[in-house]
Every structure is written in structure tokens, then in C-alpha cells.
């Protein structure tokens, strides 16, 4: 089915963001594992896998719309130097993703591509759940203090 070129272009932008998110979450997971925070590492790795499924969904949709997935372009990857930076960078990345998904959903609705809009709505829900979790981590760090938060992340 021939898709709208603007929608395909936007789907490729979302794909580049998802590919960056995969890399960022995987590096952050490995860093946390290396630092002795297996609980946090496990959650970040699971999030990276969710982002992989998002990328796969986008690739399938682009192909369905007779577009070409651009997997060579990678969005910005921001690696944190410590746990608070990791949480903040991942949070900022998710906010960027939510804005992008909302814009692409609006475009899809405008051009009558409700299939794409519905697919993106499912991804958007998961991205919002990531934001919710990251906001909770930021709150826990603030309430517990960083040493206590890190101690809790060191326990499996």
C-alpha cells in the first residue's frame, strides 16, 4: 500500500530516535551492571528491548507503506556519567520521543492514515510508561538521597 511520503519521512525520524534509544539504554544498562547496580541494569536492559520492538514495528510499517526504512541514521545518544545523569538523559530522550510520536500521529490523522496513527498510539503508551518510571526514579533519588537509592539498586 503506497503511504504518504510525509508520514514515511516522519516514521523514519521516529525510527532514528528508537535506534538511538536502544543504544543509549543498552550502554546505560551495561554501565549500571559494571558499577554493581544489577536491579537498575535489568530494568534498563528490558527498556532497551522494548525500544527494539518499537523499532521493529516502525520498520514493518514503513515497509508496508512501501517506504525504505533508514537504519543508517541514528538520533542523538546521550550517555550519562553517573546514575542521576543516566536517569535524566533517558528521561529527556523519552520526552523527545513522546513529542515526536504525538506530531507523527497528528500528521497521520490529518492525511487519513489511521492505521499508522493507531500503531503509534500503542507505542506512545509505552513511551509514556517509560517516562512515568523515570520520573519515579528521579523522585526516589530526591527523597531517599543518592546513596540510599544506589544501595537499593545494588540489591537483586
TrEMBL record:
EC number of this enzyme: 1.16.3.1
Alphabetized UniProt keyword annotations: Heme, Iron, Iron storage, Metal-binding, Oxidoreductase
An annotated GO cellular component: cytosol
Domain Ferritin-like diiron per the UniProt entry, residue ranges: 1-145
Chain residues that bind Fe cation 1: 18, 51, 54, 127
Gene3D superfamilies the UniProt entry points to: 1.20.1260.10
Catalysed transformations (reactions): 4 Fe(2+) + O2 + 4 H(+) = 4 Fe(3+) + 2 H2O
Domain of life according to the entry: Bacteria
Record: residues binding heme b: 52
PROSITE patterns referenced in this protein's UniProt entry, alphabetically: BACTERIOFERRITIN, FERRITIN_LIKE
Chain residues that bind Fe cation 2: 51, 94, 127, 130
Pfam family, one: Ferritin
GO BP, sorted A to Z: intracellular iron ion homeostasis; iron ion transport
Gene Ontology MF, one: heme binding
Function (record text): Iron-storage protein, whose ferroxidase center binds Fe(2+), oxidizes it using dioxygen to Fe(3+), and participates in the subsequent Fe(3+) oxide mineral core formation within the central cavity of the BFR protein shell.
Stated family: Belongs to the bacterioferritin family.
Name of the protein: Bacterioferritin
